[in-house]
Amino acid sequence: MALAAVWVVASLGYAAGEESERQDFKIAASRAGESVVLVVGRQGGAFGVAGPGVVANTGFIVDTEGHVLTSIVSVTGVSGIEVRCTDGKSSAANVVAVDQHSGLALLKTELRRTIPVELSEEPVGVGEWVLVQAAT
């Protein structure tokens, strides 16, 4: 699976404005919500988005083995990474791989009994609707 493909949570083949489209987005967002995580990294003295010395970004749980996909920005120049789930669970994380071309990083955590995001096996075409969800 290409790393770039995992940001697509749902590919919806409906025309804009259809009632079913709005309902499908609600269902997809609800289903993906438990898979969204906060990725927090420590930076030595730099100013990050979450305050001095901290970089915070979002990611998705992609399997039941504790792998998380996030932006490469989350792991660049940080000395420690923690992944926090919406249910309160958290874990330290290690970088498994980065892909400079797509700007994505794969992390490994000790999180277990997690719910991975459902990814589409279908390629996404130009003009198709997709849902991208982030932790808030």
Structure description:
By secondary structure, the chain is mainly beta. It has a single domain (3-131), classed as Thrombin, subunit H, CATH 2.40.10. 10% of the residues lie in helices and 42% in strands. It is built from one helix and eight strands. It has one helix at 19-32, and strands spanning 10-12, 36-48, 51-61, 67-71, 80-85, 90-99, 104-109, 129-131. The strands form two sheets. It has a six-stranded antiparallel beta barrel with strand order 2-3-4-7-6-5. The protein has a two-stranded antiparallel sheet with strand order 1-8. Strand 2 and strand 3 form a beta hairpin. The chain starts with 9 loop residues before the first strand and ends in a 5-residue tail after the last strand.
What is the residue-mean pLDDT, rounded to a whole number?
75
Q: Tell me the β content.
A: 35-45%
How many β strands by DSSP?
A: 8
The secondary-structure element order is EHEEEEEEE
Shape: globular
From the 3D structure, determine the CATH topology. Thrombin, subunit H
State the separation between the terminal residues, measured CA to CA: 27 Å
Q: How are strands sequenced across the largest beta sheet?
A: 2-3-4-7-6-5
Count of DSSP helices? Answer: 1
| Total tally of structural domains | 1
Uncertain spans: 1-16
The secondary structure category is mainly beta
- Rg (CA only): 16 Å
CATH architecture descriptor text: Beta Barrel
CATH superfamily: Trypsin-like serine proteases
